[in-house]
Amino acid sequence: MANSEVPGCCPHDCQDGCSWVAHVEDGQVTKVVGNKQHLFTRGILCAKINDYQTRAYAPDRLLHPLRRTGAKGSGEFERISWDEAIHEIAAEFGNIIDDWGSEALMPLHDMGSAGALQRRALMRLFHHIGASRLHGSLCGQSGNTVAAEGHPISFDPETIANSECILLWGANLLSTAHHHWHFCLEARKARSAKIISIDPRRTRTAAKCDEHIPIRPGTDAFLAAGIANVLVEDGIADFEYARSAADDLDAYLEEIQAWTPDRVGEITGVAPDDVVRIARVYGAARPGTLRVGIGPQQSRFGDVFVKSLSALAILSGHWRLPGGGLSIEGYPTFDNTAPECPELSPEGTRSLHRGQLGQILTSLDLDPPIKGLMVWGHNPVVNQIDAETVRHGLCRNDLFTVVIEHFMTDTARHADIVLPSTTQLEHFDVQGSWGQCYVGLNKPAIPPMGEAKPHTEILRHLASKMGLDEPALFADDETTARSCLPDGFDWETLNRQGWLYAPQPRRDPASMGGTLKMSTALDGPEDIDVSDLFPDGRLRLLTVKPHYLLNSTFANMPRQAGQQGIPTFEMNPADAANLGLQDGDRVVAHNGKGTLPAILRVTDTVVRGTTVLEGKFWWTADKDGSPVSNRLAESNWTDGGQPTFNDIFVKVTAAN
Ligand SMILES: Nc1nc2c(c(=O)[nH]1)N[C@H]1C(S)=C(S)[C@@H](COP(=O)(O)OP(=O)(O)OC[C@H]3O[C@@H](n4cnc5c(=O)[nH]c(N)nc54)[C@H](O)[C@@H]3O)O[C@H]1N2
Ligand SMILES: Nc1nc2c(c(=O)[nH]1)N[C@H]1C(S)=C(S)[C@@H](COP(=O)(O)OP(=O)(O)OC[C@H]3O[C@@H](n4cnc5c(=O)[nH]c(N)nc54)[C@H](O)[C@@H]3O)O[C@H]1N2
Ligand code: SF4
Ligand SMILES: [Mo]
């Protein structure tokens, strides 16, 4: 068999969207390497993905359809054929539609695969049959909410190389989007840019910045107001620009006035001198950049957090220059939703929030209730808020659940039917990005492992078994892929080299014709009591992204799991001393909802009042509980719908 090098792209939920080359020898993928030609990837994949073939060849990979034989969640299944599986799903879905109506069916996917076909194409079946639709996000929903008000939150991240000051605000780039760091380094080299991390934790990234400003989580909007206040006091605010973008500048200026450096210091824990100094460096830069992460959005302050940073970026006028402004995301010209064919969904079909699964499955008021669920690219039993409620919902005996997966995850264990999915090495796909401006094309390097199937094939098989004749359900993969691309897109080059740079035009706040709102309705200093940030003297548990895992993906892979290590709480020495705990102790975090065992690491890299768990682990219960942090998370969302994963408050005690 000939050897070959097959172009493809990393499908994981990461802003970098790397382009890769799979090396195939005698029909086996021997390695997967970063594409050297791709200007973003620069030949390097990350610590999660650089041995990607081991995922495809993993001994615990799901390779056949399965039917449940034991209780839900028991993990007891029997092997069945594809025909049996598809027949059973078609029959169950048909019965549910007859008895309860189409809206009793719920599709549910997240970003397990970012490939447009793998992630989205199955939705056209659900839209066509009139199943409940989906809206909302588990991820940067606060950013989406502020963007929906007209605030731009994205531009081409490569232009950050032009910046003279980059505030990495709650963004741990070296773990979560390490290719973005290159452009920060270029700015440092070419423009002497200062790179400053604002984060409750001295992360890998913070350690490489020019400065790290530790901040109490949830207090960022006050720091943003304080910085804005200094820009005004110093006469370096760009009022002309702000007036061209917003119609409430005066209200905003009034709101921030109370936020003097001293008051900001009391609430945020940032020294008043630092507030002034950062403001001056940021204000004087031409331009300055706010590079903002997702983690800080995942608390009840999330929407205000994003809004306050957009207001600061507007007031500074940095949007006037390329690379300046507010950068949370970045996009190529690519229509992500085209493969879903949303137009097939009957008008008036109800829509469900994809981040409220526990409530949706356990509600007594939902009419019709959800009777049939299909999940792909998502592990809700670990990643949805209030995970015990999700699990209770999935244990309902009157719920028929299908899970499409690579592995027997905690979610798959609760399915009635499990279908094996191909990996990116085994199927064709095309994808945009949420962090940069390239479209990626993925060609299969090897045939499907075992009986695994791409989702588009599952779509065609199921549509046919359900007796449907809508032509879109039977479209070939290339037609579906091309529907994501604008007219005149250079398909030939994309097809040949596996990627194409296709940036969306830069849009700045002034392009909104002066209609934006800068005001965040921020509380005044007199309304805030710092102790409210830590109810009952508990610690806030921050669940940050693991360096070697991608959310819960790879938690079952020995290499990545070994490097990530066992669940560990990082805790400030002052808090540990207060609690009588020592480095290396076995401890348990608990609140009214559950317990979470971990090993304690006492370290001054974390601010007081906060403990940090790096990682999403699978359920594996022991006598002290399980490491799934969302079991301890109350069901809460911001007004904009962001689940508040980081609002977990716990007591930490020694394990018995
Ligand atoms: N290695 C790896 N990479 C990933 C992922 C992964 O799981 N592992 N997940 C991917 C996904 S889905 C996403 S959404 C992105 C997320 O990418 P990031 O947003 O960069 O990741 P997080 O770790 O969630 O949060 C970033 C930082 O915010 C800090 N933080 C938390 N709360 C606050 C706060 O209130 N204020 C401030 N200033 N900082 C705060 C945390 O300490 C953390 O260092 O990463 C993607 N990339
Ligand atoms: N406490 C807490 N909770 C959080 C977060 C947090 O930081 N803290 N982060 C939140 C964020 S930002 C996000 S984005 C969500 C992420 O939540 P999820 O999207 O559930 O993230 P993963 O754990 O990566 O699970 C993705 C699943 O998709 C599967 N998969 C991958 N590729 C394919 C494929 O091609 N086909 C199929 N069928 N399956 C595939 C993987 O095996 C994996 O089980 O979690 C959220 N939950
Ligand atoms: S997870 Fe992100 S950084 Fe790692 S290879 Fe994939 S796209 Fe690149
Ligand atoms: Mo995310």
Automatic annotation (TrEMBL):
**What does the organism's lineage look like at the top?**
Bacteria, Pseudomonadati, Pseudomonadota, Alphaproteobacteria, Rhodobacterales
Going by the UniProt record, its keywords in alphabetical order are: Iron, Iron-sulfur, Metal-binding, Molybdenum, Oxidoreductase
What is its cofactor? Answer: Mo-bis(molybdopterin guanine dinucleotide)
The name this protein carries in UniProt is Anaerobic selenocysteine-containing dehydrogenase
Q: Which residues form the signal peptide?
A: none
Q: Does the keyword Coiled coil apply?
A: no
A Pfam cross-reference name? Molydop_binding
Superkingdom of origin organism: Bacteria
Q: Which molecular-function annotation in GO is an example for this chain?
A: iron-sulfur cluster binding
Gene3D superfamilies recorded for this chain? 2.40.40.20, 3.40.50.740, ADC-like domains, Dimethylsulfoxide Reductase, domain 2, Formate dehydrogenase/DMSO reductase
The reply on keyword Signal is: no
Q: Which family does it belong to?
A: Belongs to the prokaryotic molybdopterin-containing oxidoreductase family.
Q: Which InterPro entries match?
A: Asp_de-COase-like_dom_sf (IPR009010), MoPterin_dinucl-bd_dom (IPR006657), Mopterin_OxRdtase (IPR006656), Mopterin_OxRdtase_4Fe-4S_dom (IPR006963), Mopterin_OxRdtase_prok_CS (IPR006655), Prok_Mopterin_Oxidored (IPR050612)
* Domain 4Fe-4S Mo/W bis-MGD-type: start-end pairs: 3-60
- Xref: PROSITE patterns: 4FE4S_MOW_BIS_MGD, MOLYBDOPTERIN_PROK_2
Q: Which parts pass through the membrane? A: none
